[in-house]
């Protein structure tokens, strides 16, 4: 369960032109594989929760992904970006299936979407349900969303000395992007401090090897903290090298509150942290930028189970709640999270990834019943 109003109070200020509205237009981008099976669950939940909170939703179906690329030659159609930018308050993005080898003209649509819409923060709460015997996990991983190796500047060439192929990739860390992700992470930590009375921020990097790129990330995060020390004085500020961070994450997850990381490390840490709470199928995320929030489950397209009706919708439902939270509707978001927690705590209706035998629709219907 996410704490009430953990995000929207700070982020209405941070992302500026997202205003609290009661009539919301939501883009639905299922993508590939199980994305087509779980995104409808987000719509069902919104349609259920809306009348209880005076909210109305208009939905726009949009295209992106590998199949879209095969059909149209573009993984992210211009129309999709235009509609999101001009017409949508929020969106739900499912999953995309990407080829493991280079395909001319294809690149990840979600990475491109983050760049096109300036979705510079990826917020991934990872929280265990409070049941006997469970290890307490309650952290938020704040992932810089626009740069690092994900700028996709790569080249392959023949080394003149050896006559063999070499591939180079550019890693970019900028002061601008680091400042805004550090500020968001500190604001989340500040809100958790108000709720808990004790919180720490952990900055993750590998500056002992990457002294300039990760070194800049480390330095700027510290500068943001130091320059606002009056505001953040009660937040414990820590740093952790990425390799030891992974070790501690699995050994001592209860030690972490808010983790801020460059794009690649944040991606790896948040997927790994999902193992601490049972499955990628229960971990949500929100891509946040100026003017729009896109909820996105952390799992992939899972082609091995696509079409079987057994994909876990919980991550999408939680991402739907997270989207609402950022759009200022904290009570509606809280009600969704409470229903999901109740489903998980009761431990009767669950999909195979959590050891159950139920279908996607079984879980969705149970959550809706609890709403």
TrEMBL record:
GO cellular component: mitochondrion
Required co-factors: Mg(2+)
UniProt-listed Pfam families: Iso_dh
Domain of life of the source: Eukaryota
Stored PANTHER family: DECARBOXYLATING DEHYDROGENASES-ISOCITRATE, ISOPROPYLMALATE, TARTRATE (PTHR11835), HOMOISOCITRATE DEHYDROGENASE, MITOCHONDRIAL (PTHR11835:SF48)
Top enzyme class: oxidoreductase
Catalytic reaction annotation: (2R,3S)-homoisocitrate + NAD(+) = 2-oxoadipate + CO2 + NADH
All residue ranges annotated as the Isopropylmalate dehydrogenase-like domain in the record: 25-367
Gene3D superfamilies given in the database record: Isopropylmalate Dehydrogenase
Keyword terms, alphabetized: Amino-acid biosynthesis, Lysine biosynthesis, Magnesium, Metal-binding, NAD, Oxidoreductase, Phosphoprotein
Coiled coil, from the record: none
Similarity comment: Belongs to the isocitrate and isopropylmalate dehydrogenases family.
An example Gene Ontology biological process: isocitrate metabolic process
Name this polypeptide is given: homoisocitrate dehydrogenase
InterPro entries, A to Z: IsoCit/isopropylmalate_DH_CS, IsoPropMal-DH-like_dom
GO molecular function, one term: isocitrate dehydrogenase (NAD+) activity
Pathway: Amino-acid biosynthesis; L-lysine biosynthesis via AAA pathway; L-alpha-aminoadipate from 2-oxoglutarate: step 4/5
EC number: 1.1.1.87
